[in-house]
Structure formats: structure tokens, C-alpha cells
Write a structure and sequence with these properties.
By secondary structure, this protein is of the alpha/beta class. Helix content is about 35%, strand content about 10%. Strands 1-2-3-4-5-6-7-8 form an eight-stranded parallel β-barrel, surrounded by six helices.
């Protein structure tokens, strides 16, 4: 007689999957050093509209060649990629480069996000280089906002449907632009880590200004993620490994808890101890390609940790990009029949 279970027997049931475990948990329990039980009250009640709790993003993909390297490496290492983002700005890419990236991403169901316009560190203003950092990385003056809008219109006309912004005024302007048909209504707006909010009130304001995902600084403690999730369901972006100019933090062992508290969450696979790439170009080609591949490998490391801890469930289906219903401030410009 076979020892295999009778799968047709209605009384035979599959064993329930083991719950996720925390790093080191079994060994520490043996030593009497196990941690207190997690509180269900800390968990985020939110998810993406597809039911997933996390997606992935590879940042600093600075052109078609870097994108090709990312897609090839993600296939080789079996790293699912929901979104790639670029930091130099749409204005640093020629039309053919943008359309090539749009095509490659479309073929693989990957969202392409391009940065908009000039920002503080590239401006003539010196305050951003002072000890206080002045106005930060924001768009200085009307012309800088206009440059961001120009980038947004051009990029969306070439097929891009996700824009990265580093200024609250630009965010609000582009949100109104999509509402009034200046750019496509399905364009998503992503807040850069350069201006990421650090408290729940600020996070809620960014959502209401039009943000569809908000990059928070990667040094936020877990408790702050829970506080944010009590006031906003807008998707959150967080560097699991941050570039040095954003702190260089490496939080791979916290990935499962970051998802539990921060969902819906984009896991961003950044890279510390790497040179700055912005603005990118041929003079940085080898570094751009090498760091692009290593970011994907870092993603594999994070996903392996999730799998080892039994916490790798809940990923959104590949090709998912929309954030679901969000709260917005009322538009001060009345909609017309033309809109």
C-alpha cells in the first residue's frame, strides 16, 4: 500500500504553512534570548489594489543600456522588478533613448519612472551647499517649475507613465496637470527621497498634493512607519540599502518587518559605497552598468532573506503599477467641459 496521502479523500487536508519567523528566532529561543511577540496593532492594515503588500524597484537606471543590464541581471538572478527609476532627469535623455526604455519596460511589464526637471543641487543658488542646506533639492523659482512641467509633458508624450518629483509645488502642479488633461490621467507621481516626509502629518500632505507613492528616508524607525500607516494608505517607497548621500543605511534583515508595518511598500534596492551618478553620461558608463547589476544582486539578497524567514508571500503580481484610491486636496481650478 502506498504511503502517499490520498489527495481525493475529503478528510485529508494540507498542513497549514508555517508563520513567518524573525531573524535568528529559533536559535535565540534555545538560548532564552527570544524577542517579545509582535503586536498585531503595529501591522499596516493597507495593501495595493491587487491585494499585494510589496513591490520592487531598482533605482538609478540611467538610460537604455543600464536598463538592459538590469533586465538581463533580473532574469539571470530571478529578481522580479515592478519599477525602475532614473535619477538624472528626463532632460538628460534624448527622445530615442526614452522611447527605447519605454518599449523595453512595456514588453516586460515594468513601470518606468523618470525624474523631472532641474533641482536645487544643480541650480546657481548657493544656499543648498551651506551647512543648513537652504531650500534643499527643491525647484527654485518659476522657471525651475516650468522646466519640470516641460519634462513631464515631453516624457508622457513619449510614453512614460511615472514621474519622479522633488518639490511639493511641482507635485501639486503635475497633479492638477493630469486632472486637466495636460498629461495623461493615468500618470503616477512619485515623491523623491530627496524631500521624503518624516512624520505622518507630512506624509498625509504629500498624498493629498497628488503623490501616488512617497519615498521616506530610510532611517525612519519601525514605529514611525506604523504612525504613518495610521493616517495614510498611499504606497511607500523605501531604500532597503541607501546610497551614501542618503545615509548609506543597510536594512536587509528588517525587510519582513518593514513590509509588515509599511505596506503597501516598494522595496528599493539601492547601493552604498558607490559613487554618485547624477547627472549621468558616457563618462560614467562603466560605473553606471556595474552598479545597475549590483543593485539587482542586492535585490536577490533581500528576497533570499524573505524566503528563508518564510515571509516572501504577498508580492504584487508583476505588471502592477497603480496605487488605488487616495485622498487629495480639492482642485482650485474648476473643471470645464473642455477638461
Amino acid at each position: 500500500m502506498s504511503d502517499l496521502p490520498n489527495t481525493e479523500d475529503p478528510f485529508v487536508t494540507e498542513a497549514a504553512p508555517s508563520p513567518p519567523r524573525r531573524p535568528g528566532e529559533p536559535a535565540l529561543a534555545v538560548l532564552g534570548l527570544d524577542a517579545p511577540a509582535l503586536s498585531p496593532a503595529d501591522a499596516s492594515p493597507h495593501s495595493f489594489p491587487d491585494g499585494g503588500t510589496w513591490r520592487t524597484e531598482v533605482p538609478s537606471v540611467e538610460g537604455p543600456e543600464a536598463l538592459e543590464a538590469v533586465l538581463a541581471e533580473s532574469a539571470r538572478l530571478d529578481v522580479p522588478v515592478h519599477r525602475v527609476s532614473q535619477g538624472s532627469g528626463a532632460w538628460m535623455l534624448i527622445d530615442g533613448e526614452i522611447t527605447e526604455m519605454v518599449r523595453a519596460c512595456s514588453e516586460r511589464g515594468v513601470e518606468l519612472c523618470l525624474f523631472t526637471g532641474p533641482r536645487g543641487t544643480w541650480d546657481i543658488g548657493g544656499s543648498v551647499r551651506s551647512d543648513s542646506r537652504g531650500g534643499g533639492l527643491r525647484a527654485r523659482g518659476h522657471d525651475a517649475v516650468a522646466g519640470c512641467v516641460e519634462d513631464a509633458v515631453r516624457a508622457t508624450e513619449l510614453g512614460v507613465r511615472c514621474l519622479l518629483v522633488a518639490d511639493e509645488g511641482v507635485l501639486w502642479t503635475l497633479h492638477q496637470a493630469r486632472r486637466h488633461g495636460v498629461i495623461p490621467a493615468d500618470t503616477t507621481l512619485k515623491v523623491s527621497a530627496l524631500i521624503g516626509p518624516v512624520n505622518p502629518a507630512a506624509y498625509a500632505v504629500h498624498e493629498r498634493l497628488g503623490a501616488d507613492s512617497v519615498n521616506v528616508p530610510s532611517d525612519l524607525p519601525l514605529a514611525h512607519l506604523t504612525e504613518i500607516r495610521r493616517v495614510s494608505a498611499a504606497p511607500m517607497d523605501m531604500y532597503i540599502e541607501a546610497p551614501d548621500d542618503l545615509g548609506g543605511y543597510v536594512r536587509m534583515y528588517e525587510v519582513a518587518e518593514l513590509i509588515r508595518r509599511g505596506a503597501p511598500l516598494y522595496l528599493k534596492f539601492g547601493l552604498s559605497k558607490a559613487p554618485s551618478l547624477y547627472p549621468s553620461g558616457l563618462h560614467l558608463r562603466e560605473t553606471v552598468l556595474a552598479t545597475a547589476r549590483e543593485r539587482v544582486r542586492r535585490g536577490r539578497l533581500a528576497l533570499d532573506l524573505l524566503a528563508r524567514h518564510g515571509a516572501d508571500g504577498g508580492m504584487s503580481p508583476l505588471g502592477s503599477r497603480l496605487p488605488g484610491p487616495l485622498h487629495r486636496f480639492p482642485d482650485p481650478i474648476p473643471l470645464t467641459d473642455k477638461d
